[in-house]
Amino acid sequence: MNLVVDRRTRLAKFFDRADFVGLGTMLLLALGIVAVGAGWVNGDAARLVVIALGAVLVGIIAMAVMGNGEVRRKLAPYGLLKPGILWLALFFLAPVWSLFVMSLSAKESRFDFWPDFSWHWDNYRTALTEFRPQFVRSFSYAGIATLLTLIIGFPLAYVIAFRGGRYKTILLGLVVVPFFTSYLIRTLAWQNLLADSGPIVSIIDDLRLTGLFESLNIMENGKLMNTPAAVIGGLTYNFLPFMVLPIYVSMEKIDVRLLDAAHDLYSTGRRAFRKVVLPLTFPGIFAGTLLTFIPAAGDFINAALLGSPNTTMIGNSIQDQFIRQNNWPVAGAMSLVLMAIITVAVMIYTKFLGTEDLV
Amino acid sequence: MQGGAGVPVITLENIRKQYGTFVAVDGANLSIGQGEFFAMLGPSGCGKTTTLKMIAGFEQPTEGRILLEGVDVSTVPPYKRNVNTVFQQYALFPHMTVFDNVAFGPRSKKLDSSTIKSRVMEMLEVVRLADFAQRRPAQLSGGQQQRVALARALVNYPSALLLDEPLAALDLKLREAMQLELKRIQREVGITFVFVTHDQGEALTMSDRIAVMNEGHIEMVGTPEDIYDRPSSVFVASFIGSANLLPGVVESVSGSSVTVRLSCGAVVDSSGSDFATGESVTVMIRPERITPGGEAIAGRSISGEITDLVFQGPSVRLIARLADGTEVGAVVGSHTNLTIPRPGDRVTMSWDAQGSFVLKGHPEMAGSTTSNLDHVEANL
Q1: Residue B182: other Cβ atoms inside 10 A
Q2: d(Cα B117, Cα B110) in Å, to the nearest integer?
Q3: Using CA atoms, how far apart are residues A93 and A86, in angstroms rounded to an integer?
Q4: Torsion sign (Cα): A103, A104, A109, A114
Q5: Which residues of B touch A262 (CB under 8 A)?
Q6: Model's pTM, two decimal places?
Q7: How far is B98 from chain A (nearest CA, A)?
Q8: Model confidence pLDDT, tens digit, residues A171-216
Q9: ipTM (interface predicted TM)
Q10: Domain ranges of chain A
């Protein structure tokens, strides 16, 4: 008896909350926009529903702004969420939905302008078979680049955090300075640096290291440009700050007295690093690898500007299919496959290396 | 009052530490015996923490030698010294459980895992935290974290345990409980404790011996009784407890008895050694030694007018102004049989034969005299 009453009041409380209505309305509205936008539902009725939901939403916002204290306190969090949810609904959910519809469409004939939805799963087969090398390349390039940013970025972050002293801010500023120049310009600059008659190749030639670099598969025919090494180098360079900053932040939080304590407890510098600094830096490494790997896997600028047809990544192929071949269905399928693989990979990574319970 | 016989656990020989032109510690000599509870006491910036860091190995002395059980360790890194530190904010490893924190030292020493387990559990038993072995430091209260820090250091059976203001982060009640707890643990394990504090009450309560430091110098080393009753300088007298410091000039000396003419006009007999007639001195009288009212005793009385009366629970504090304006404090039990004088009364204040002590120099040398209330208030 007591239990029933208790449950009923709890349910009642749950539904009584004005914010519950607000959140529900927002989600419904988002779905409505997606549905109408993607042509999922048609007709005046659908439009009316969307308009009605929109009106409710405006009402809630108005109440959140002008209502009394109690109402405002309840609605404020959802009022703050609203712009974000609407933004994501418009520019993430709706495009992904239309991409999904597109990926299952096909053109009846070569001369049709708009592909028709026809459960055309074949697009996915094409994406996975014809573009398999690009997928493999993307993930291996991104993986190697992530590893390199970690190898370069970790000591860099370490020195700034623990030895930076009063130059800390300046050093950190220097890491971020490249961001003041556009991504594209920086990568174009690399073309000049790596050019066949550019400074790096001539230094390698002068030192007679060409043979060595060729045997390491870094150079091909005495050239650096248009090799996998150039693409990976570009990725590493461009994503380095995304590795350095999160690692720096987690190192910065480490109390130096913990190192004193480790030394005091008979640890050599190496053991103190392994047992104290490294585990406490893990959240930073975790964030850094994700921030580097995910965008690097979908990157196309480095491969386009520094690579050759033999180094194309999946981003280049998607761009090519969309813009040059006008083959939107296959491009859509490739995009979704890329998203799916990255999502699954990140989930597995999080499962094994997740650092939630680390401070 | 050195605990064990034989070689002292820690010896400092003419230790000097200089940072640029700033001298943090100057000519410190100390020897601390086996099983002693030794306190280093002084105001902030007196060099006590620097001295502790040099013993631990985090700082190297500019001059002088540090010996651990007779062996010179002046240049030995901290991880090779058999001393452990309890840090001020504990510095527990936040990513490890209590067990792993305590096991950190033994694991560094590569003991086998069954020894580690039994030693760690034994030590957690000593600090009464055995049930918390699997918790993280963030899940513990301040007092519990403090005890983990203690266990983490003691589990290594160091020659000496160094504690850097270990109770400073705790609130008053907990601090008092931890003082007794620390004392109990020290008795139980029998390890030398070197304890740095700026709290004179803490030092008096817990220590076997105290070194009072000021501006890089060790002013005095002695038992709490020595330091309280027979301070070596005006600074020590004023820093430990509250003291009435009355300036005066030596009139005559005979043996260890010194007759001093105070600046308020009274002539008092007191004790002290190595004084010359005409020397400027300070007579120290602890407030609780003074009996207000009653008959004047020759050579052991002064008189003044009561200006203030402060009820402090178990005791009443009387403030009297002497002829020269010096303020003198006296403390009497609040349920004494004596009639407590009221403000405005002129009273004679006398003390017992051992109640006063003569010190070299004038009270101004101490920076502040605890008997001068205006001064104390101005400093607050």
Answers
A1: 24
A2: 12
A3: 10
A4: negative
A5: 93, 104
A6: 0.77
A7: 15
A8: 999 999 988 999 999 999 999 999 998 999 999 999 998 889 988 8
A9: 0.80
A10: 2-103, 123-358
